[in-house]
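Page 42, continued from yesterday. The earlier attempt failed because a stray header line got pasted into the input along with the sequence. Redoing it now with the clean sequence only.
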Amino acid sequence: MIVPMHERGIFAIECPLQSISMSQFDIFSEDSTQLSPKEKRAAELRMLINSADHAYYVCAHPIMSDREYDTLFKELESLEHEHPELLMPDSPTQRVGGMALKEFKQVTHKKPMLSLSNTYGEQEVLEFDQRVTEGLDNNIHPYVCELKVDGVAISLIYRNGILEQAITRGDGEIGDEITANIKTIKELPLKIHHNPFGSPIEEMEIRGEVYMEDAAFLALNKQREEAGEKTFANPRNLTAGTLKQLHSKEVAKRPLKIVCYYLDANREETMMSHADNLALLQEMGFPTSANSKKVNDVQDVLYFIKDWEDKRETLPFGIDGIVVKVDSIPQQRILGNIARAPKWAIAFKYEAQKAETLLRDITYQVGRTGIVTPVAELEPVSLAGSIISRATLHNEDFIKNLDLRIGDTVLVEKGGDVIPKVTGFNPSKRREDAALFHFAMICPCPLQTTLHHIEGEVQYVCMHPECPWQIRRRLEHFASRDAMNIDGLGEKVIDQFVEIGILHSISDIYSLHEQRDRILALDRWGVKSIDNLLASIEKSKQQPFRKVLFGLGIRHVGEGIAKTLANHFGSLQALQKATLENLVSIKEIGSSIAQSIIEFLNDEHENAMLDSLSTSGLCFEQSVLEQEQKTDEFTGITFVLTGELSLLTRKEATEEIEKRGGKVTGSVSKKTMYLIAGEHAGSKLSSAQELSIPILREEDFAQVLQGKKKLTSFTGIS
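This time it went through. Structure tokens are written below.
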């Protein structure tokens, strides 16, 4: 089945399951002639459906119509329902499980899932090759180059040909079992129907990367945006979060994909060549990369890296580099590992993707606290898998420092391949008519009020309490997940309700039930959607005091300050009695924050809104349970978070630390006592290592929170 392409070293494969006959389908079981007619029919249906899945999702060549597929699937479902004894764990009907899990079981990897050392330049690749050459006594050592898909690593355990376990990388030693979630990926075989080894395989491990294609990610974000819901940051974070769902039915709604790159069947055939193992994976029907390539030397490696740097934008998914591995597995063993990384492999990381485009105009947006921010209106340009047409310019000083002018050809890049930002302009393409930017002194809202410049700061602010743009942003902030978490009350819905005059302030949210009939008469609103919105509004009344306080949108009062105020005063009534001196005596609160709080609480308009919210039943004091949950185990301990966290969000991790009396800061210093490092940790990790600050992996931190490990056990560089 393997189609060699020796002249290019590229691995390709025909679709193996399309040509399987009934006599081949059960290679891991007893002779199929002993099966009853119903057992044969069920096995035949499983084979046909699995073949169709593979042809459609892996080979991109459908072998039957949707109607034919649905007919076969329904027949199998019916047969298994009538005869439960026919239900097999590898049945395609079992790709989505039933009951939601309460938690994931932790599993120890038989072989550690190592990290890769990162390199960023040609010289570092040459130095890696030199180390390999010296370690192998100058023997010839071909490499395999693979695209570094920006996803989530996974280990798959097959026993007797059937997928039995799927385990996350975790800390490399221990991961979470997420088998039910991985089964939802239709391109992944639940049972191996083509065995290239000639004898049964009792157990084998396959490793791969779970990811999401850019088009699917953008489509999901578009759906959420149209529904007024918060959009996701990037495909990798969405993939990691999806795999942590406790109900596989929710996972099945997300179009996850997988690419496999590692095989260990504990037999001679899989212990010789990595390139051969990729071919074996293809032959068994596993999705592998069509772009992996075996090369003879380091110069070919550098050519591969340069080639894909130029054409990575043509891929339907994100990559952040190239993985380079010594092909010979015996040579890999000779080279061995150092710490948590192999000496026989590296990851070459590309720089953030950049693009040039025209700065058509500079417009303004008004935030919830009235701050007016300039926005770059760009000629739409494709960048890192998405179309960029706008980017923040932060403030007037930012524009002056970059010397940007309307009509310039500007440089745009994505920081961490997530948030687009303008980083400069191309002087050689500056037009003679490029216009200097002058910050407008009038609010862009219909009220056209004069903006105020805050002394000692760079922002301009609209002070009018009825500014409609400010009201919109305040409403969005109040309804957001980090505040009151009101599903269905997103940007577009708020715009619609403000436009027709049923939302003028935060307190109006809790009167929307009185507008039910009026909302039902609007486009795209039905009984179910309005009932869901009203139910979510009612549920928001259960949000704790700190969330309500944060949701109010007091200038300078973020989540951390809101928690501090809630913990210190315990209720809104006590906070309203606080003086400026009371507030500045609190460690985290400076004079500008204190002054902002006093001004808010003394404002007649804001007080009327607070009275209305209190009457509606919102929580304006800490519960007894919140008080009881506080501990002092992290008192006096300062943490810094870095990298991408998947077990907890940064906000959740911060909450857990602060609930225990600890403090989270944004930068590493001599005062930092612990660094918590997620995936893709950057300069903060290097700084912590230089200062010998103890480093906790995310999994270590989770175990500390669960009481399985003591924080004091991490006393040096981890």
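Notes: DSSP finds 25 helices and 26 strands in the chain.
Reminder to self: strip header lines before submitting.
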